[in-house]
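Lab meeting prep.
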Amino acid sequence: MLDCKRYILFVILFIVAISLAFFNLLMSPPSNELGLMALFLGITAFASALVGYGAYRFGWVNLSPTLRWTLLGGYQLSSIRFQPKVTYRYAFFQGDDPGTPANEAFDPLLLGFYDWGTWWQGEIAGEYFLANSNLISHQVRGHLDFSDAVGSGVIFYKFENDQPETFGPGVASTDVGTETDFYVDWKLTSNFSLSLLGAFASPGPAAEEATGRTKSFKYGMLYLGYSF
């Protein structure tokens, strides 16, 4: 638990630091404005984290027999070129407790596509060996809009399981692995869009214990879409 708290704190500080670095580099504000921006980012980031921790610490998240919840924080510099945006998302999908007769696992039902990483947690992990159940994910994403038609970004995931015993036979670790996705979205016309994606995933001890696989995964996709 302490390692998880330290990890979340590190990610929050990292996002705030990167946002301030971009703000200072691209806009060169006076020191007082930089200080105000640091104060604003710090307050909003830590307020969001405290709300999430309070919900966990005081048991509010246990009011539902099966549970899914997310905590998302981000910052976008919309007034500068490419409109850089950095976000962090914590997502929790309850797993089945093997010590009880009931099945507490969250039922993910049917997934839809809204944006990269929204419902499918990783283009490799989320499509091939992980479901939105018995899953804890940390997602850090950076995105740039090069024009109204072209956007690109990178997404990093850290995956854990909620209940190791029900993740797979003989699994004792909560560390499922990591994944990094790179994508480019290009809107060709008002109806057609083209996406290029590359992904790399590394299995953790839990994945190795469940499947026996120790080699990394590589994945590429060219996706042509039509909307009407």
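Slide two material, second protein:
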Amino acid sequence: MMRHLLHLVIAVSTVDSACHVGVETAICHRSLEENDGLSPLGQEYVALLQTGTTRLPDRTSLVPITVQELSASKKEKARPTEGQGRKSAVAVASRGRRLTPAESISALPTASARLKLLKPITWMHVPKTGTSMLNIFYAHPDICPLVPEGVKLPDNRTRPDNDLFAEYPPDLNCPGSFKPDRGLEIQARHIGLGTLYEDLKGHIVAMFRQPEQRLLSAYYDHQWRPYHSWRRWAREPRDAVEFAVAVQGCATKMIARQLWFYAETSNPCKGPFSPLATEAESDLAVQRLREGFGFVGLMDRWDLSVCLFHAKFGGDCHATEFSSTRMDRNSSHAQYDTSELRGFKDKVDGRLFEEAVRIFEDDTSRFGVSPSTCSESCWPRADF
């Protein structure tokens, strides 16, 4: 295992050249091989900085980024054949293999026991997969027991989560449910798992979304609310394709990339300077998703995901859990015409999404969740 330390410094004082005293950074000394890891727009910016043609804006923020280098050997890991991943956790245990953290949760016989093992919860909030996940947490009596019934995210706000946290702080209203040193307020900011994964595995919950839909949602959100998934000091993307190329692989990087976070780089998905996901990171992300996530939901099947969460972890369904916080085109629940991407596919996150779908379908089968059972057991209790 090797670690490659990459320093990106957005600290520029008033100097004649961006690559002299004003930027104490490896940007000015990156090799061509290192630049290959960036999107075309990221490479464009680095080239301009190295020649002194342009410079970053005046701000002071050192951002060290460490990217974990997996084994130099690129042996293809054997993927499970169709059906292997659908064995029950109990059956796996009976064969003597040690259960993964995810399997350990599913193997428990009651929802209350599964929720107890899931805590303290870490929400990995992939951009544009539903801030409304907070409504699920806040409505659950055993996660946020001190939140009054009916409380939900404010509608049509730029940062509804901030408003919710200000009125109902999670540390006071959800005692013991989230890590005190990595609270829900931090988790809501699209923080990656990084080096903390080993401590967090088995406690992670996340929603995933069809990658091209997620990219277009972020692109239009960026136009409506500037700088979502985009650096504030970078030029505007020319179109949806350039945006998508620069920020692709977001979920994969959040799971696999090793980062120490400062300032606005807390979101490893932001373009155009975030290096593209590698094959090793893709392998690692799929493995971590399979082994370390206590709950996997799908943005594209939100209602069924809500029902699955309750089937797995108990608590009654509430109408607030089935609503979107932004009722317009920029809503995370909107559907987009992907022809605008002119054939571009986010292959890295596409592979991860396929694994998320497999896990989701395994769980819906294991816990008996379907549209019909959801309408019978969950929706009536939600008082629609």
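Talking points for slide two:
Residues 1-35, 52-87, 260-265, 325-332 have pLDDT under 50 and may be disordered.
The chain has two domains: 1-69, 98-377.
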